[in-house]
Design a protein that fits this description.
310 residues; L-amino peptidase D-ALA esterase/amidase; six-stranded mixed sheet; globular
């Protein structure tokens, strides 16, 4: 089950070998983003800085399709407007929908869509069917994802801090690098696995002699990859605090993928707070939240790949 206060919707097209995932908070949420890849594709991310006027967002959209996939946010925005949601400007409400894309154009799917790509309609469809129990693996924005030597995919993971503070991650892994140690089927993120969620394989012993050798996709060009993460929490946070946690969360990429944050990846992390629980006076602070964010991101990356390759 997903963290209360959020829903996730998928829409994909198997002929296209691509899709869209929408992360939908129940109400406007505080958000920030941190980009570390060399080839990001984004919309409305400049708005997610503490000095900007609008402090909350209505949804976040992840999409395949490279730059064509940025149309997906327009579809989600259209659905939100139909629900009368958005930032009020006089009598008009403008839904604030940051988005990011990954590259899946050369994965064998039929991309001959004519004048307009299908991502706007997929974005509307995904927004209209959000759930607290989304599927994982080759679904939504992860339906056409790939990694070095394996399919990529969409994964979820969460961690509870104290009695009620939750940190969750939703990730689309379409990385240049590999989630496997050398030429084994053991995952780099094995030390962070819970309840055998990606097979309980542990780390190989001894480590293979080729563990340090980079395993990447055979053809690696700028803007042809990317891992996208959305960290969700019910802890009440400012935009600046969300930004700091987004920085921390990138450690999860390095725990799960090797190599990572390459010039050909557009790796980024969004952090969203539903502002449900005030952490002032508790034992939980941004250090704990940032560490948990890195842990759940590493697990969600690996789960997405593991479930896509069952």
């Amino acid at each position: 089950m997903l963290l209360k206060g959020f829903g996730i919707g998928h829409a994909d097209d198997q002929r296209l070998k691509s899709g869209v995932t929408v992360i939908l908070p129940d109400r406007p949420a505080t958000a920030a983003v941190h980009v570390m890849g060399g080839a990001p594709g984004t919309r409305e991310t400049d708005l997610l800085s503490p000095e900007q006027m609008v402090q909350t967002i209505d949804a976040i959209v992840l999409s395949g399709g490279s730059a064509f996939g940025l149309d997906a946010a327009s579809g989600a925005q259209a659905w939100l407007r139909e629900q009368n949601r958005g930032y009020p400007v006089g009598e008009i409400r403008v839904p604030i929908v940051p988005s990011a894309i990954c590259f899946d154009l050369n994965n064998g799917g039929d991309k001959s869509w004519g004048r307009y790509p299908p991502y706007r309609e997929l974005g509307h469809q995904a927004a209209s069917q959000t759930t607290s129990s989304p599927e994982e693996g080759s679904v939504g924005a992860g339906s056409g994802a790939t990694t070095a030597g394996a399919a990529g995919g969409f994964g979820l993971a969460e961690q509870t801090l104290g009695d009620e503070i939750v940190v969750s991650a939703a990730v689309v892994c379409n990385a240049v690098g590999s989630v496997f140690v050398g030429d084994t089927h053991h995952y780099w993120a094995a030390p962070f696995e819970l309840n055998d969620e990606f097979g309980g394989r542990g780390l190989p012993h001894p480590l293979p002699s080729n563990a340090h050798i980079m395993n990447t996709k055979r053809t690696t060009q700028p803007m042809e990859n990317t891992t996208l993460a959305v960290v969700m929490t019910n802890a009440s946070l400012s935009q600046a605090e969300c930004k700091r946690i987004a920085v921390n969360a990138h450690d999860g990429f390095a725990r799960a993928i090797y190599p990572v944050h390459t010039p050909s990846d557009g790796d980024l992390v969004f952090v969203i707070s539903s502002n449900e629980i005030d952490i002032a006076g508790t034992d939980v602070d941004t250090l704990h939240l940032g560490t948990a964010a890195a842990n759940v991101v590493a697990r969600a990356i690996t789960k997405g790949v593991h479930l896509a390759n069952r």
